[in-house]
């Protein structure tokens, strides 16, 4: 066979090889498909794309999150249900969604996203870095095992979300966190006390702080009980009790006579002069007018109510989702 006869075959092989190389190069440089992040809830903090909840159940869950946001500044929670995570692991998917939504307060990174993937039957409690100060990965794992997974295995989705959200906020409650920290300090102090008098002094200091806190709490509870006895027709809700206890812990003493009055802006956008309430009875009308100024929490004028959520919004430009939390399945 002559060289002229073999040339077409050589050219054909070269052409096919070049085409295959072009396809491979194109595939290598083609960008990965962007994640189609579900839209952030327009009202409240629940995005039920998998349609697991009735309208009434979703409204109740939104109201619960709103109330908890008013009571607890350390956590901002949201709930998402989907039928698939678009090929992503539930951990990566949860982080991307939470970051895109701006879940949590800006600068505090205190968001917690509870995610359900019905397609793979997977669950995730994604905890931002700031929220991990009061809700550790171990706490998230316990909530996953004791509240979220059992409810989904039983098919009672609304109850599972309600118990999970409640436990998330309760575990991160300032008083609960303080109790856990105090317990940890006490145990550590007992261990270290054998090395000398210095550690013993630390133990005494911790004990005094806890005793002082207990005295303040006991006095506040007595004030509430006395008010209820004197006003039997008025109901004092659990959220009101917690708000007053938080207020009294942060305001145990009246300001000095020479202190300038404090003016702050509530969530309604109105600036008011904040007065000191020495008793529960004097605190109650002030709280009724402006709960955000007399709940013992930090007032953030930039946060706002979200429709039927019944409280502070969970979305304030937060971030810091680097992998904290816990995953599960059902």
Automatic annotation (TrEMBL):
> Where do transmembrane segments lie in this chain?
187-207
Ranges of Gly residues composition bias in the record:
308-330
Segments of this protein annotated with the region Disordered? 300-330
Q: Keyword check for Transmembrane, yes or no.
A: yes
Q: Which residues form the TPM domain?
A: 46-170
Annotated Pfam families: TPM_phosphatase
Where does the secretion signal sit in this chain?
Answer: 1-34
What is the protein's name according to its record? TPM domain-containing protein
